[in-house]
Each structure stands twice: as C-alpha cells, then as structure tokens.
Amino acid sequence: MVLFAEYCFNKSHSTAYGYVTYQTAYLKANYPVEYMAALLTANSSDQSKVQRYIATCISMGIQVEPPDINRSGVDFTPLAASILFGLSAVRHVGQGAIEEILATREREGEFYSLADLCDRVDSRVVNRRALEALIHCGALDSLEKNRNQLLHNLDPVIGWSQGRAKDRAMGQGNLFDLFGGSTAQTPSTFESAPKAPAVADLPQNEKLRLEKELLGFYISDHPLKAVQQAAQILAPVNLLDLEDQPENTLVSAIVLLTEVKPIVTKKGDRMAIVQLEDLTGKAEAVVFPKSYERIGAYIEPDRRLMVWGKIDRRDDRVQLILEDAEPIEEVRLVMVELTPHKAADIEEQYRLKTVLLEQGSEGAAKVPVVAAITSQHQRSFVRLGARFRVENDQTTVQALMSAGFQAHAASLAAP
After folding, report:
1. Domains and CATH numbers, the chain
2. Least confident of 165-169, 184-188, 342-346
3. Side-chain half-sphere exposure of 50, counting CA atoms within 13 A
4. Region of residue 367 (phi > 0: left; psi between -120 and 50: alpha; otherwise: beta)
5. CA atoms within 13 A on the CB side of 338
6. What is the distance, to the nearest Å, from the Cα of residue 290 to the centroid of all Cα atoms in its chain?
7. How far apart are alpha carbons 293 and 284 in whole angstroms?
8. Is residue 253 within 8 Å of 239, Cβ to Cβ?
9. CA quadruple 110, 112, 118, 120: dihedral positive or negative?
10. Burial 11-35 (b: 16+ CB within 10 A, else e)
11. pTM of the predicted model as reported, rounded to 2 decimal places
12. Is 363 exposed, middle or buried (0-12, 13-18, 19+ CB in 10 A)?
C-alpha cells in the first residue's frame, strides 16, 4: 500500500491538474472576454487580484468599463469585446438597492434620466447615499455626462419624486396620466422635473479619486495611463513583478503614490512608509531619513513619480526601499536615432557607449537613454541599461551630435 500510495498520489493529481490547466487555457484562448469576466467575479472580494486581472484584460485588449445603470448586472458582465463592472462592486449600494434597480429595469425598461430613476424605484431602498455612489462611480453617465450636475439635481429630484410617490399612494395620480389615458413613461414625462442651475463638471482628477474610492480601482481612466507607453520603455519593472526580482536589485518604476504614512524616528529624523500603485498592481515602499532629506518634497498622496529603489524582503513580504524619485512631469530622457545598420555595427556601438559613459556620473546620473531604431516599415525603442544613464540631457545631446549621432532630449510624456 505504501509503494502504491507513493505512485498513485503524484500521478493522479498531476493528471487532474493538467486537465484543469488544459480547460482553463482553452477557455482563455477561445472565450477570453467570458473567461476574464468569470475570473474577476470569482475574485471580486480580493482587490489586489482584481487589479491584477484588470491589468491582464488591458494587455489582452479587453476594456473593463465602469458600471452602467442600464446595462450592468450584479457581477462582471461579458460583452462583445469588453467587460462591464457589476453593481455589486459599488460601495454604499446594498444588495436590496441592486435588486430594486434590476427588477424595475427588467419590468419597465431602461431609465431615461435621474428623475425617471428616482420616480420608478423605491426611495426607501435606493436612498440618497446609494444614488450618490452610483453618480460618483460613473453608473449614471449614460443618463447625464456631467456628474456634478447630477449631484446638484439630486435634492430637488428626490423631493419631487417623493411627492409623486405620496400622490400615487393617495390615489391622486398624475394629471397628464389621468387625462391622457396612458401610464407609459417616456423621456418627455419627466421634463417637468426640477433641476438645479447649470454647473461645470468635476475636475478629472476629482472624478477619478471618487471613482476609486467607491470601486477600489481607477476604471474610466488612470492617472498613469497618459504615460503608459513611455513607462514601458523607461521603467523595466511593473509593481506586479516585484516579487520575481532578487533581493537588493536596483529597479525603477513609474508609480502613483496612493498613501503616505509619515514617521519621526527616535533621533527626530523624518521618514515615511508609502503605498505605490501602477497599472498592474500595488506595492509598499519605505523612504529612510537620508533619502527623505532629498525627495521628501515629492512624498505626497496622488503624486505621479518615477522612482528608483532596491528590492527588500522581510517577513515574507516584498518592499521597495526608495532611494530617489522625480515627478514624471520633470523626467527627461535622451533619444538617439539609429538605423538598423548603424545599431548592428560594432564600431558604432562602441562609439555610442564611449560618449554615454563620458556623460555619466556615479550616483548623480539618472537620465535614461533610449535608442529609436527606425527602418522602412517599423520603429522600435530600446532602453539602454542603467550604466548608460547620463547626468544632463542637453549636454549629452550636444556630445552625441558632435560625435555624428542624431539625438534629441524629450520629456516622459512625449518621448
């Protein structure tokens, strides 16, 4: 029995795991939208996993859309080429409110406006707090793009709808319904609903902040999305991949600071523990006093930074020890234009390395250099290693051009 157990346990489990792997790989390859929607729903209670799977969706070309009052169900919903956030993911919107909204929509059709929504659902179930949450997360954008206008309309519309509900309860009904002989609701039915004076929409960063507060993620946009392409060139490490890096490895990343916890040491020195986020995941980082003296002015919530640091493993956790940081608006780079022939020429490679090493300075050089290799049919970018970082972008460009290379300085936002 012992000899048999040593054999059968391994073989049976490897067969079962292999079969499950085949099934999931088949589903992901042939039904990617449905597969990722199911994966997001199954892990909806784990924010780190959801963020990782959303990043996977983006890399697969699958858009994850914000909740929609007229299309969303309870869970993540697969569409033709995208995935729709479920209403259950919205904080402050309880199960009872979701059931009321979905039942009303199924029974009477889509909602035309905020007034239509408030008039048709039970305000005791879908209360003001739930409506505010739906507005802030973008679930009512299909009714009105201006979220700030919806918020200002909320109080008068709620009062108006509650008055109509009382009239119906007393059997009085609506004057137009009585004489029109129809109870069908149309967009024109709610033209008489009160509205607040017109106001400008919320700033984009405020909309994103509230969106993340209610969903746990940036969905309609992300503060780092504008520099996503440049980030792939300049930052070799995504936060999702930190665990795969050896300890003490020096890495760089383009991140958003989401939380900052200031600390004062026993000696009175200032330091901080910060939470970082990029398009793929989250990570914790520590800024020790010596580094804080130099970069403390940048250590603020919602700052977009390019950071440099070392991998540290403690208590089965991976942290990043930040050594340097720079706002992405100030990040500069040097772009060297090369033909495929020139890029493959060993002598040209040596000349390029010589110029760049002369422009570097140990400890102070952090301007990255990118080679743009352009052929007749394509243009590709190659980020040169950390040892070829330079101290000053302008003097490096001048040195490269004097050596016969085409080069220019660029910002991170427009490499």
Report:
1. 31-215 (no CATH), 225-327 (2.40.50.140), 332-411 (no CATH)
2. 184-188
3. 20
4. beta
5. 23
6. 31
7. 20
8. yes
9. negative
10. eeeeeeeeeeeeeeeeeeeeebbeb
11. 0.73
12. exposed
